[in-house]
Design brief:
The protein is α/β, with parallel strands linked by helices. The chain is built from 15 helices and 20 strands. The longest helix has 19 residues. The mean pLDDT is 94.
């Protein structure tokens, strides 16, 4: 059983002993620490917190403990139950709440669950705030409310329609053009809340022909929930069988978006952000963009083409958002299919990504496969090295960094792990924020070169174990 406590929240496998997985004790402890933090941050004795969850089987159990603990700490709650991560983020500001908790382990298998923590702006907590909650969870400072000051569930509702309405009104979304194009759209929502959110979104965008896959939100994922090409063979077959124009694949909490073309081939997660950024930069006369250090160079190329400035941030949504605010970015996100459009909110949002991509496709009046050819051609390889229990990952990365500096293979950046930037390729080696693994990302002009680069550097990391 695994339990990972980090500045971004608490994540673990369900079950096990008291000191092992994500269990009622650890859930209550961490929720109480968050409630104490929110009380102090807002100066309120009875803060309001929004709680939403994905469709994992453990979700109802975790939600009951979270809400009960929040009430025990004197917090009132708006329970939006089954909801996407971006919907929950928007509900925090829409309900004028003091914070929010999203119960989702994102792309992890269904035995995992997690608590993701939001501030009053519906954004993830920063490093200092996360560390303070970790400290509170281990301290004796937690103070529960007396009986006459207990919180309650003020409202049980959905916030999906408000989210969809906001997407339709966002600058750049062209509902009329999408409706007129008559697209046939397939989607795979991997048996989670995408099955609730995508049908009404597509209907609101004027899509009349929809082919759903794994749309029942029972939390029993039909395949590995991370939207990578090797996991998406079934949706590819559906596209070809139904002759769909495009397919969208989301992860369990719907903050990542993968696109497939009319032949059932992956558009490339990296190019989800590149394509919608190109669309917005062109239609709005340029602007600045941001992605993380593990994202494709293609976003930089497209941004420069329209006279804007591209900036790179450390991996993690909170880091990307901070950099976007710093440079006034028009759009940003992460290369894993995460689109952040500040005109709507500062959070990765697959619903927003779908609306912008369909608007682009309607404007270009071409096939998805033809659209992909319009962007700079880079190929990325993503590998991982599983770390044995007790591995000092920081020491491992320090050793790797020293070797790279001495090797002189390229410019070495230590902002987030170790990135080695070469003339026409790069490799980024870093610790995962959510799992006991080392992630290795490599990009090069050909698929073979990218794979070879990732394997080579992965072998170097493995040699240190």
């Amino acid at each position: 059983m695994t339990l990972i406590k980090s500045i971004s929240g608490i994540r673990g496998t369900i079950g096990g002993g008291v000191q092992e997985g994500l269990n009622p004790i650890s859930i209550a402890q961490f929720t109480a620490a968050y409630a104490q933090f929110i009380r102090r941050a807002g100066g309120k004795n009875k803060p309001l917190v929004v709680v939403g969850r994905d469709a994992r089987p453990s979700g109802p159990m975790v939600k009951q403990i979270v809400i009960g603990t929040l009430n025990g700490m004197g917090c009132d709650v708006v329970d939006i139950d089954l909801a996407t991560t971006p919907t929950t983020e928007m509900a925090v500001t829409g309900k004028h709440a003091d914070g929010g908790i999203i119960l989702t382990a994102s792309h992890n298998p269904e035995i995992w669950n997690a608590l993701k923590l939001l501030n009053a702006q519906g954004e993830f907590l920063n490093d200092a705030e996360g560390k303070e909650i970790l400290r509170l969870a281990e301290s004796d400072e937690l103070e529960f409310a007396p009986v006459d000051q207990l919180g309650s569930v003020l409202e049980t509702c959905s916030y999906l329609q408000e989210h969809i309405d906001a997407v339709l009104k966002a600058p750049g979304v062209n509902v009329d053009a999408i409706r007129h194009a008559g697209f046939k759209v397939a989607f795979d929502s991997v048996n989670s809340v995408g099955g609730i959110a995508l049908p009404p979104l597509l209907a609101a965008l004027g899509i009349e022909t929809v082919y759903p896959l794994n749309e029942v939100p029972d939390g029993h994922f039909a395949h590995n929930p991370e939207p990578l090409p090797k996991h998406l063979t079934e949706i590819g077959e559906l596209v070809r069988r139904k002759q769909a124009d495009v397919a969208f694949v989301v992860d369990p909490d719907v903050d990542r978006l993968a696109v497939m073309d009319e032949m059932g081939n992956c558009f490339g997660e990296e190019y989800t952000l590149v394509s919608v950024a190109d669309y917005l930069l062109r239609s709005q006369g340029g602007g600045n963009t941001v992605s993380n250090l593990s994202s494709t160079r293609a976003l930089r190329d497209v941004t420069v083409q329209y006279g804007g400035t591209y900036s790179a941030a450390a991996v993690g949504e909170v880091n990307v958002v901070a950099k976007m605010k710093e440079v006034g970015a028009l759009i940003g996100g992460e290369g894993n299919g995460g689109v952040i459009y500040p005109a709507l909110h500062y959070g990765r949002d697959a619903l927003m990504g779908i609306a912008l991509f369909l608007s682009l496709l309607a404007q270009e009046q071409c096939r998805v496969s033809e659209l992909r050819k319009k962007y700079p051609a880079y190929f990325m390889s993503k590998q991982r090295v599983d770390l044995p229990t007790g591995t000092d990952s920081l020491a491992l990365l320090a050793r790797f960094a020293d070797a790279m500096k001495q090797g002189g293979q390229g410019e070495v950046c230590l902002v987030d792990g170790v990135k080695v930037d070469m003339k026409d390729r790069w490799v980024h080696v870093r610790r995962s924020n959510t799992e006991p693994i080392i992630r290795i990302y490599a990009e090069a002009p050909t698929e073979a070169d990218a794979d070879a680069l990732a394997v080579c550097f992965g072998d170097i990391v493995k040699s240190y174990l």
